[in-house]
Amino acid sequence: MKPLIIAFCYLLAANSVFALQSEQPMSVKPLMQTVEWAQSWWLPRHQEKLTLKQQMSSVDLVFLGDSITHGFETKGQHVWRQYYQPRNALNLGFSGDRTEHVLWRLEHGAVDDISPKLVVLMIGTNNTGHRQAKPEKTALGIQAILTQLAQRLPNTKVLLLAIFPRGVNADDPLRQINAGVNEIIKSYDDGERVHYLDINHIFLDEQGILHRDVMTDLLHPNKPQYKRWAQAIEPAVIKLMAN
């Protein structure tokens, strides 16, 4: 083959790869958290979790997510001690995280060298809030996380939670995006390894209104809601950890 033709073929191939990479949404590209308010603690927290994981005699349950899950160490710490500490649980919730940040953590050892019975996963509301990503793009990020978990934890079941509601009512644009994501990710339930659960009704009244005595900022559950959350998923947790 002539050198000019060979060079053209390489250029064509390189452009094709670049085009495919460019088409990928941010939600599936592993990324370290770089927002200014998280720079002082995010990476140290990741390192602390790696150390804690090594120190634990066994990790049987993992919670993976964003600030809502992170809250089990603050507002929900009493619930964590009651429901999850006795189950050798590890909290991998990081405030501000989007799907791409969870992917980065998974690629940098977050669940290496453990084999929990169950991972409880809820992520995506920051994809919604930070850039109002289309539901299908956030869903792709969640799918990528599930793929990573399948590769790294082949014997672990996943309880995939619907993204919690936000905003006052169903007309809220961010509530609608989250609902759109949930409509997609519920299809990820395969009845074997991944199990989808929507508990959003526990936070809403009969008209679908989210009140500030449930989530003051219409996003993060208040302290009493952590027990309601734990109680709502408890039957699924018991079932999936028993098998």
Task: Set down the secondary structure blueprint.
Blueprint: H1 3-23, H2 42-55, E1 61-65, H3 67-70, H4 77-84, E2 89-93, H5 99-107, E3 118-122, H6 125-131, H7 135-152, E4 157-161, H8 173-185, E5 194-197, H9 223-242
Helix pairs in contact: 5-7, 7-8
Could you give a quick summary of the protein structure above?
By secondary structure, the chain is α/β, with parallel strands linked by helices. Helices cover 47% and strands 10% of the residues. The protein has a five-stranded parallel beta sheet with strand order 2-1-3-4-5, sandwiched between helices.
Query: How many H/I helical runs?
Result: 9
Approximate strand percentage: 5-15%
Spans of at least 5 consecutive residues with low confidence: 1-22
Mean pLDDT: 92
Radius of gyration: 20 Å
Distance between the termini: 59 Å
Characteristics:
243 residues; alpha/beta; 47% helix; disordered N terminus
Could you characterize what this model shows?
With 243 residues, the chain is an alpha/beta fold. The chain contains nine helices and five strands. The protein has helices at 3-23, 42-55, 67-70, 77-84, 99-107, 125-131, 135-152, 173-185, 223-242, and strands spanning 61-65, 89-93, 118-122, 157-161, 194-197. Helix 5 (99-107) runs parallel beside helix 7 and helix 7 crosses helix 8 (173-185). The longest helix is centred in the first third of the chain and has 21 residues, at 3-23. The radius of gyration is 20 Å and the shape is globular. 35% of the residues are buried.
